[in-house]
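hey can u check if this looks right to u? its 1880 residues, i copy pasted from the old doc so theres a chance i mangled smth
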Amino acid sequence: MSHEAIIVRGARQNNLKNLDLDIPLGEMVVVTGVSGSGKSTLAFDTIYAEGQRRYVETFSAYARQFLDRMDKPAVDLIDGIPPAIAIEQSNTVRTSRSTVGTMTELNDYLKLLFSRLAHLYCQGCGREVVCDTAQSVVEALYRDWPNGQRLMVCLPITVPETLSDDEVLQLLNQQGYARIHGRDGSRVEVVQDRLKLTDENRGRLTEAVETALHYGKGHVLIYPMGADRTVSKPERFSSHHHCPSCDIDYPEPTPSQFSFNSPLGACDSCRGFGRIIGVDYGLVIPDERLSLKDGAIKPIQTPSFNEVQRDLIRFAKKRSIPITKPWAELTDEQQQWVIQGEGDGSWESGRWYGIKEFFDWLESKSYKMHIRVLLSKYRSYTPCQDCGGARLKPTSLWWRVGSFEAAEQALSGRARFIPKGNTLAADRFNQLPGLNIADVMRLPLVRCADFFEQMGDANADEPTQLLLEEIRSRLGYLCEVGLDYLTLDRQSRTLSGGEVQRINLTTALGTSLVNTLFVLDEPSTGLHPRDIQRLVKVLHRLRDAGNSLLVVEHDPQVILAADRILDIGPGPGRHGGNIEFFGTPNALLKRKTNLTASYLNGTKQVSVRHEQVPGIPVRDRLPHGSGSRAPMEGSTASPGPVYPEPASQKNLPAITITGAREHNLKNINVTIPLKKLVCLTGVSGSGKSTLMRQILYPAILKHLGEQTEAPGAHQRIDGLDKIDRAVMVDQSPIGKTTRSTPATYVGAFDAIRKLFVATPLAKERGYTPGTFSFNSGNGRCPTCQGNGFEHVEMQFLSDVYLRCPDCDGKRFRDEILEVKLLQDADEGRRALSIADALAMTVAEALTFFHDKPEVQRSLQPLADVGLDYVQLGQAVPTLSGGEAQRLKLAGHLANTKAKDKEHILFLFDEPTTGLHFADIATLMGAFRQLQAAGHSLLVIEHNLDVIRAADWLIDIGPEGGDAGGELLAAGSPAEIMASNNGYTAQALREYDASLTQGVALPAPAKKRKRKTDQVISVHHAREHNLKNIDVTIPRDKLTVISGVSGSGKSTLAFDLIFGEGQRRYLESLNAYARQFVQPASRPDVDAIYGIPPAVAIEQRTSRGGRKSTLATLTEIYHYLRLLYVKLGTQHCPECEVPIEPQTPAAILARVQKDYRNREVTLLAPMVVARKGIYRELAEWAAARGYTRLRVDGEYQPTDNWPKLDRYREHNIELPLTDVTVSARNERALMDGLEQALDLGNGIVIVAPVDKRTGKQAASERLFSTQRACPSCGDGFDELDPRLFSYNSKHGWCQRCYGTGQIIKGFDEEQTGEERTWLPDDEAGTEKICPGCNGQRLNPTALAVRFRDRSIAELASLPVVAAEQWFKTLKLKTNEQAIARDLLAEMHSRLQFLQKVGLDYLSLDRAAPTLSGGEAQRIRLAAQLGSSLQGVCYVLDEPTIGLHTRDNRKLIETLRELQQQGNTVVVVEHDEDTIREADHLIDMGPRAGINGGEVVAHGSLKQVMGNKRSLTGQMLSEPLRHPMPDLRNAEMRKLWDKESLHIEGATQNNLRKVNVSVPLRQLVTITGVSGSGKSTLIRGVLYPNLKQAIAQKRKTKQTWTGASQITGWENIDRILEVDQTPIGKTPRSCPATYIGIWDTIRKLFAGTVDARLRGYTPARFSFNAGDGRCEACGGQGEQKIEMNFLPDVRVLCDVCHGWRFNDETLSVTYKGKHIGDVLAMNIDEAVEFFAPISKVHHALRLLQDVGLGYLTLGQQSPTLSGGEAQRIKLVAELSKANMTPEDNKGRRSAHNLYVLDEPTVGLHMADVDKLLHVLHRLVDAGNSVLVIEHNLDVIAEADWVIDMGPEGGSQGGKVIAQGKPDTVIKRKKSYTGQYLREILN
């Protein structure tokens, strides 16, 4: 049933307490609660994880590995969950190359746009550089020069300068040239022609220019000539990007040229970073008040470099440079002299070499560590001088897009970016049209959006229009979420978490999806109170579009805007994880005991009093074991807030920033009082972060001599000497491993370890502090290395973490845990081990260690910042962002207690992110403690509680971006509110009033009307043959799209509905993932509204090769392989005993026994089955004296390493020593073994040397210390999933290569579908492989056991038996943890296979032996197992291969899927499915260009009543049986009656079947699914007869799968007519396949024009020859690769889709050229070629089978399977003799045609045409054997064979056979039962 809510039961992830809740769909639900209470665990780790995981499972296993599938959460049940998209704050990319442009992928679109649309302007003259053609040159000459003008056409060539003029002329004469116009060194201008500019000479001029361009390598010069034949200045032209005036070449524009992440586009100096690291002379000269004598040059003041200081003073005196004057007072020339030096700068020149040369000398010594350390102190990042910070090569910056007017408006007074190397005058440069890519990157997004909106695209081609649409929409969304102030080149690492999230939110807006769950994490982060309402509107819009929102949030405006609020608590950590409240905002505000409600309704407030007493109670504590909070002291509502008095700036120290002008700051002066809590605020984008993070913080670091980026633009900063250091406290992760804990971070663990060392037992044993470390030392558990768990990698499943079995998760050895600390407590003496101490919370530890000052000093800050609930040993990566930030703050508090006199400036950027109101109160207390310790705080913040509590406010504004950057106000909160200036003052007044007057309950929210139009709306669809149609598909219903073949059904269902639904979801993924799951291209449609994420279940005519099985297709085998790797027990394949570890001594004994007195080579495996070139390994080996390595069995030298195949798996071993095995050499042999085992990770290969040849013998053996047979001593590699793979040489049987059969001609290179390589005459030669007995795997793989079964034995079970085996499987505790997800995945897949009726198949059933219906239902089972809700499933004829009985079961499954809340769209012709539909859409009225319209839609009754609907007519008046005029009785009298006899058929489930098949008749084989139809015909009859007919001369035939087959001797040929494509390339088409194209080409070659030109039929081939278009290779279209976007195919711009060149197209036949003929549909061609009988006959047959709508040149890949099958039938029919007269005096070939489900894809009306074709084949004396379920085909068969009675092991018998009216009388026959309904 459909769920109106997401049902969660038993959620136990992290600290969640077995939660049960129902989250309504279609609403905005806000999850709130104190930090660490479990909000993100519920929203992200549980609900989002399951929604994302289930949708991602609908992709292939290959694609999923790139899609970052979430872990399966710990929860009993989640139902009704839609596909989920997370919008988080995390920004994993920290490189400078990551910018807003790359994050939003706008850079990717821009580089494509610039490469297609930009115009190039010359850097030398500013003229536009165009690529000329001969035609454009001639047009320009006729346009610009007077008629009759004499001119000379010259071409420039280059010759060796050593050649004389005569020699050059002699060479030119040989080429037909007689004149040279001039010569300059090696450059010669050759005269091509001299002529007058007249209309008569146009052709001659064109030819001359074309020739000159060709031989002049794209250059031509046209000289105007006077009457006296003197020449003037020439006009220069070029056919490539070359400025003829300046003679400058430019590269062709490619997307990579405009990407700074590509080496082709990135600046060579900075490599695309825009900045370089070099000597920062600001750090070299940190104090400009010092003179040269007093040490202004800091690095040369040390004793090591004092000599340089002396040289400086000595030379300065000589040059009269003041040495006592402050550096700041020296002139620029004098400063440059000091830095640059004089002369050549060499040390020995007797001149001052300069500080620059000093650093160059240091660089040459940088191989020394202390020099590198020294250099790092004086380096910083500065803008790259070669690209000016643009990141790109200068040549890329001369390409411009847009008009001059649009550029001026966008720049709005900004200076244009001038590329380095520009030589144009400023006024000329500023007149260039448009913007270059650097200009675009530096525009605020709002101006960037305006610029592209004005850019005209009327003349742009389809790809360019697509790019412009994407750029405009993405920029629009960025502006809509309040990011209009950002620029595209803003580095992503400088973005706040809120900005990152809102960027990600734009992606969600851009998808326009419905029925999707969006999960957001604190979207209000970084937003000023003024901007919150903008965000709320965006969230509501997303919700109102038909989506569900789950928002983790603490902002009161967002919370109160929710439909429901979910409050998690009551406390953090182990005290949280419960549902405190779940309901509407109104209901929450009425709660008196709820902490969140208390702050929302104003009964509690964050105190603004500046408490003077350190250590005040700043947080309401959660008592140990208590479930409620104590009231917070000082936090209840008061009559009015008490503000601190305004700070007097006269007596307080301060930092003053003067002239700040970075980014949008407008030369402002800001004073920051010290020893105060100063809050920097303002609207988003106003310039706060620029001031603090890009000007102040780098300036402080630079002042302190630390490496940093250059501070942003400012005049000066005063007061930096009043602080000792600055600390930036942000929410970045602290540690990435479980070894990082709160106790280690604050230093408490060191103090605790010292206490343990001081115990008597520890002293007695000699333990040190290192003994009690879990990071190193010998005290930690050796099994888990101190982690407390084992990490089990599960490949494509979530990794598993198992509690260490040796230490039980305690991290230490048992002996260490025996050391106890004793402490008196109320309940008696307590004894704690080091593991117990780590398990304590901070609060418990403070109590336990109450008399230990060192421990108290370290742990108290954790309690002060509200982290008293965390465990001392809790892994830091498990902390939330807010907890991580407070842990950092605690660390700083602990440090400041140790350093009382240090004055630190703490810088905080949005410290309240992720904090609940109560946590903010705790944070404020921590701030006051820092203040009390004498420190200063500068906080960027928008939270009004923090702003109110600040001592001093600095308000930047008034708006963001260009409209910001001004200092609006500075002062106390009271002064700011009184100023009445700015949004901050307004927000403070409103908030203050709400707190003092109490919060009125908001008016009840108006109940939103549930959308009545729950539909998918398609407007003006024009894809393929669709005629600009509008279609409405109801959501959450079962819709069937029907219509005649080729009418546009699949285009509507798949190209539009599925394509858009999947594409929009995939847009939420990163570009890297999308390149592996390339979405469909955007269809040609105006709009599609209301579309949910979509999943397609399509037909595939290819079912895979022998290596594909039921288990691999459903991925059950993937999980089974992983199960055997993790839990299997390996046995020796020879001895059948479990393997176990062995000692090196045991290996030595075995080698001595087996190789006595033989010379052996000991090899250490270095690389095992890995791809790569391994040059570094060779270098490593060579450096250690090893001269060779063995690569794939061959020795290769290490000093001349060959180039290995990068994409091939290699085995590389290191030969360590050659030794003769003897008692005398035992020591050398042991040493060699130990060394090999050490290098080979416990594995050594012993290779004996052949005495005769001196080469290694083949009998080498592997020995292992980890995995060896105790009986024979053989060693084995570690288990790997590839060992169990049929497709890997590590796993497959060496005789059959993983197929399980011996197939002639098959080797290890054929890993794909056998059908693609197996010759027709070799089919049917398979036999069971004797090497593996059909089990496909090698002995090593088959020797691995799980519960005493090999993997092949498990894979051989039928589905139902396998499911039962897994259900009864008993697992140990550790095994349960590993196998939990594996078994769940396999169990769900096995259950669904049973649900779709495939319980009879065995898991190892080979894919080629599956019927079409079985293959389709396997895919259906694999896709539908995800249990999603709100998805649009699009299915393509799911009833294929289903018997009528099974078909009705499938319909029940589809109905169940729909009732779960999904939209089900089915392309179908089956009558039962059509009648079951809630909504019908009938496409037509005909096929191809005559289709593409919606002829009827609505209910079944409405469609049946529509006279235009062919489907409606067929439903109301189905075919009548028997059909008249179907058989040609006269023809059939010509043929003798014959029968084919199959005896003892036993393949698969056949039970010794004996059956007779009448020949020269239409015989249908039918029966329920899995009954054995395909096995009998395609598995037994077809391959056996194929082989027998090919070997007719053999006296005795060998039969496979049957004891005997007789009656086949008169059959000349057997042919399987399937639905595989007629060709794999666009060049294959109906005309070539049915054999008429050769005739048509001969017709054209026989025309007068063709004969005059000497054209042969080959000229009219589009596959080869001189006639086809060279630009597209005869395909008529060109593929434009769009990188991460879908590739776009456009008509070839040379031949315009005709496939041939102009000369070929000039030849016509009956007024049509050869391209026109290919474009004809078959209906037109029948009439056109009526006189040509051979062509006309074949075309009429195509028309008769309903393919008249196809064009003669229609590309094979665009044909459906049914269309391909009917074309093949026509190819056969065209060869047959169809009348008695044709057969007189000649013998007709007797062909046996085998067809599998020929009605697939056929409309009911087309079945009639198919029946006529099949009977015409029989009339011609052929036999037709059809596997079919369609009752109309069965009813018109001459003979019916019914298999059954059930499928699988219950089938395999012939239930009934005879004529249709005989079969209906058989009671056991299901076919007879349903056939009776249409025959009676």
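The first strand starts at residue 5 and ends at 11.
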